[in-house]
UniProtKB/TrEMBL annotation:
It comes from the Bacteria. Gene3D superfamilies: Fic/DOC protein, Fido domain. It holds the Pfam family Fic. InterPro entries: Fido, Fido-like_dom_sf, Type_II_TA_Toxin, Virulence_RhuM-like. Residues 171-327 form the Fido domain. This is Fido domain-containing protein.
């Protein structure tokens, strides 16, 4: 049950009608009572109720997911009474609207879609602008700290060490916050990137396999190809669309290489380790293992954690995972 104060009320006006509509931006919908739907479609409440019963009995919609009770105050005779009234979301409203084939229903759907889009877009834009302003301020502060760290007047080893920790981890925290807020975007990237040939990839993996077997950490199944999975994967990464590379940057190629090897399982065993090795091999081939300050772009612990994160991620989160890897590889401005 929801209180009125938690759900904003907007007014729908058309052709002499004026109906209070509850807007729910979080669920991307609006809510109306049966009485309001009757007013909207120019029908009586019994007709609306009959259509709703049919909608649910025919399993067109699930009742529980399309109905919510809101506490409203209304006048009954000389009294003001507070009651919990069932409201129906936009899916239910549209279903009834199609069944009554009402021109008023078409106008309402157009209006509600526009209102939802405006609220969602404005909310996203304001949130994004506020976050990016804070991010720019933090990045500017970190640039100043890095400049201070390079000053010859800063002699104390402990002072330099502290500044190094602050600058390194502040960037990490900023990246994690962007991830949590759903605000990760593709960073500035380096165009190009040379992928290994299938033969080169096989040679690199064969070398890794020999080392692991010698240590007792792998069997003959490690990196054994299943069909033409590896060849197809590398071919897809090197493809063009209308004459332009499908993955035009070093960051894009590296991110997709790591993701696809983990998720597509081109090997009988050791897909995560093979993916991490091919990822590092690709960065080495393209002179990107180190950042502009001569530091490893990703240490072994970070790579292991990232590999496991990708392996456990849902396919629907693919683009987020790709942007996360690209941001971790991005060279600082």
């Amino acid at each position: 049950m929801n209180d009125d104060n938690q759900t904003p009320i907007i007014i729908y006006q058309a052709a002499g009608q004026e109906i209070e509509v509850r807007l729910d931006v979080e669920q991307d919908t609006v809510w109306l009572t049966q009485r309001q739907m009757a007013e909207l479609f120019g029908k009586d409440v019994r007709t609306v109720n009959e259509h709703l019963l049919n909608v649910y009995s025919e399993c067109e919609l699930e009742r529980d997911s399309t109905i919510r009770k809101f506490r409203i105050v209304r006048r009954e005779g000389a009294r003001e009474v507070t009651r919990n009234i069932e409201h129906y979301n936009l899916d239910a409203i549209i279903s009834v609207g199609y069944r009554v084939k009402s021109p008023q229903g078409i106008r309402f759907r157009q209006w509600s879609t526009r209102v939802l889009r405006e609220h969602l877009t404005q909310g996203w834009t304001l949130s994004r602008q506020r976050f990016e302003e804070n991010a720019r301020e933090l990045e500017a502060a970190m640039a100043l700290v890095r400049k201070t760290a390079g000053s010859p007047t800063l002699d104390a080893t402990s002072g330099r060490g502290l500044i190094d920790i602050v600058t390194r981890y502040a960037q990490t925290f900023l990246l994690l916050q962007r991830y949590d807020e759903g605000l990760l975007t593709e960073p500035r990237a380096q165009e190009g990137g040379q992928l290994p040939t299938v033969a080169e990839a096989r040679t690199a993996l064969a070398s890794l396999k020999s080392e692991l077997i010698a240590k007792g950490e792998a069997t003959e199944l490690f990196a054994r190809e299943r069909g033409d999975g590896l060849e197809a994967l590398l071919g897809n990464l090197d493809q063009t669309i209308f004459g332009e590379p499908a993955y035009p940057s070093v960051e894009a190629k590296a991110s997709h290489l790591l993701y696809f090897v983990i998720k597509n399982h081109p090997f009988a065993d050791g897909n995560k380790r093979s993916a991490a090795y091919l990822f590092v091999d690709f960065l080495y081939r393209n002179d990107r293992l180190l950042n502009t300050r001569g530091e490893m772009v990703m240490n072994d612990v970070g790579l292991a954690a990232l590999t496991l994160l990708i392996a456990e991620s849902e396919p629907a989160n693919k683009e987020t995972m790709i942007r996360l890897i690209m941001n971790m590889l991005a060279t600082p401005e």
